[in-house]
Amino acid sequence: MTFRQEMKKALLTSAWFVFLTFPILVIRVNTIENVIEWRWLNMMWIAAGSFILSLLWSFYFGRKTGDPGKKTEAFAPADKAGSLFRNPRFRMPALVLTALFATAFPFLFSVYQTSIMTTALMYVVLGLGLNIIVGLAGLLNLGYVAFYAVGAYSYALLHYHFGLGFWVVLPLGGLLATLFAILLGFPVLRLRGDYLAIVTLGFGEIVRLILENWNEFSFGPSGISNIPRPGLLGLDLNLDTATIYLYYLMIGLCLITIFVFGRIRDSRIGRALIALREDEIACQAMGIDKARTKLLAFALGSTWAGLMGVIFAAKTTFVNPASFTFLESAMILSIVVLGGMGSILGVVLGAFLLILLPEYLRAFSDYRMLLFGTTMVIMMIFRPQGIITGIRRTYQFRGGSIDGATAGK
Amino acid sequence: MERQQENKGETILEVRRLSMDFGGIRALEGIDLVVQTDQIMALIGPNGAGKTTFFNCITGFYEPTAGDIFIAPPGGKRKRINGLKVDRITSLGLARTFQNTRIFPNMTVLENVMIGRHCRSKAGVLGAVLRGRETLREEAEIVERSYEILAKMGLASRVNELAKNLPYGEARRLEIARAMATEPFLLMLDEPAAGMNPQETKELDDLILRLRSEEGISILLIEHDMRLVMSVSDHICVMDYGEKIAEGTPQEIRRSERVIKAYLGEDSDA
Ligand SMILES: Nc1ncnc2c1ncn2[C@@H]1O[C@H](COP(=O)(O)OP(=O)(O)OP(=O)(O)O)[C@@H](O)[C@H]1O
Ligand SMILES: [Mg+2]
What we know:
The structure holds 2 protein chains of 2 kinds.
Chain A: H1 3-26, E1 27-30, E2 35-38, H2 40-66, H3 70-73, H4 76-86, H5 88-108, H6 111-136, H7 145-162, H8 166-185, H9 193-213, H10 215-218, E3 224-225, H11 239-265, H12 268-278, H13 280-285, H14 290-316, E4 318-319, H15 326-339, H16 344-360, H17 368-382, E5 394-398, E6 401-405
Helix pairs in contact in A: 1-2, 6-11, 6-12, 6-14, 6-15, 6-16, 7-8, 7-9, 7-14, 8-14, 12-14, 15-16
Chain B: H1 2-7, E1 11-22, E2 25-36, E3 40-44, H2 51-58, E4 66-71, E5 79-80, H3 86-92, E6 94-96, H4 109-116, H5 125-130, H6 133-152, H7 168-180, E7 186-190, H8 198-215, E8 218-222, H9 226-232, E9 235-240, E10 243-248, H10 250-255, H11 257-264
Helix pairs in contact in B: 4-6, 4-7
């Protein structure tokens, strides 16, 4: 593109942006004095800003189409971090330090911080669970939150009606979510891609609407309160100790999830899931039962949502349908996409970024969604594979003997 | 090799009056075909003759409108496979490749072949998580077998490369390797030489002949490259407009009036 063309395009873009934002950013109706304020200065800013951004944009795109190798270069630090993490000499100390920090966390920081950290850990597990469905099996699931809700309401209702305790319901919640996933799986077996996304989106909304409207079953929008926190050997814990206890519980569950996810990914089952993502037709021709594998992906991924649902109910001691909106599904999906599909480290980083940053950047809370959206758009353009690229396991063959060298854990 | 001598002439695939309609369009019209042990059978015909459709019917991607498909694995029972699911047919011993290469691009070359071992192994979710001795043994066997197959295909140096980074000719060979990993008794290749350079095609000749002599399998081959067809196949079946118009040895086919006419109709080279 010539310079003139680029200028013209940038001008058009800025005019378009001015037009789009005119009603909200320029015109303001002052309802007290019944006058209209014209904020021309805002318009100037938007025009100038979008003009410059548009120029920068075409500059970057020019480079991108010109040399495909260039575009990843900007992210070399992330790649370096990834490969550094795979290097055993760095990996061990890093893991030990992380473990020490995680163990000491409740003693170094306030209960409030510990509680936020627990939430972040919950999202790590949720992200990894969804990563099985979306990252490994390539099934775009927009209704993941439904299984989270199943877990939460399992605990709430089973406790309310039968007085069942946390430890009994924890596995039950996981199991119920798995069952629900299989039930949902059957009708959507034939779908993939966009169609699957829409059906799962619908499913998520249906579950929420049922919870909202079926008062006799779920107590409607007012929800269920007084759900007990998890007990420790029959001891009565006060709020602070209960929070810390839940934190360690989540650390444990996180480790279990990471362990299970890693093992599944590097197994016969995991390969079948990835093959399904890569090419559904070839995957069948390789003797993989498509229907079974899809159900398996749904089941394996949703169990974690069920477990986290129980934890969520126990942590907040209160559940209502407002916690299980589509936004929640989108959040978990963003963690997976931002972090890196199929990658464990990626999801962990993604969860911490997306859950912790907004908490600590309260000052910008007005712009939270704006920042969030912008980040996602930029990521998808320049780094569609996520922060950390899932690296495949490699094998070394020397004179017939086999070493499995693992990478990308 | 002794066993194969004995088996020679045993029918392993028998297709009877196979027809396939696509909403009023008849793509296959009463095709009969018999493949025997140790045979390399070629299926040729002009574009749109219905060759790929024929493959899709046999491998379960399409359910034929009429007709029967029987398989009889060497030493096994004869079985009708119409309407069985694709993965079931693969595990019964029919493996195929695709006209447009369908490798798993973001998996390594080795993993691509390991997928082929899926239907010959059985570790489940529990096995994956607990990774007991049996699972480890099976996993090691999968890796070892896959590597062996790749070595035979001349892809040993590529095991850890992502499949999408392979050059075209090697990707096609990888697809054959992957199909071989399912331990088929009949390997069905859909235009394996398409897009290969003459050197690669020449190597493909050897590869196909070696698969038969070393692995003891039969091959059913769709191919437009007449030199390849004439040099490897011992039986040729010619299709045109969904019908079988001729069948016989390469010599017979070369002389057949009908075949020449069918081909001259669109392509005067052949
Ligand atoms: N799924 C389908 N739906 C409708 N028509 C189809 C379908 N598959 C194949 N056909 C039609 O069946 C006929 C045979 O197609 P087929 O792909 O089997 O030809 P072919 O012999 O493999 O040709 P080529 O040598 O070009 O690969 C064509 O007319 C094609 O349009
Ligand atoms: Mg074809």
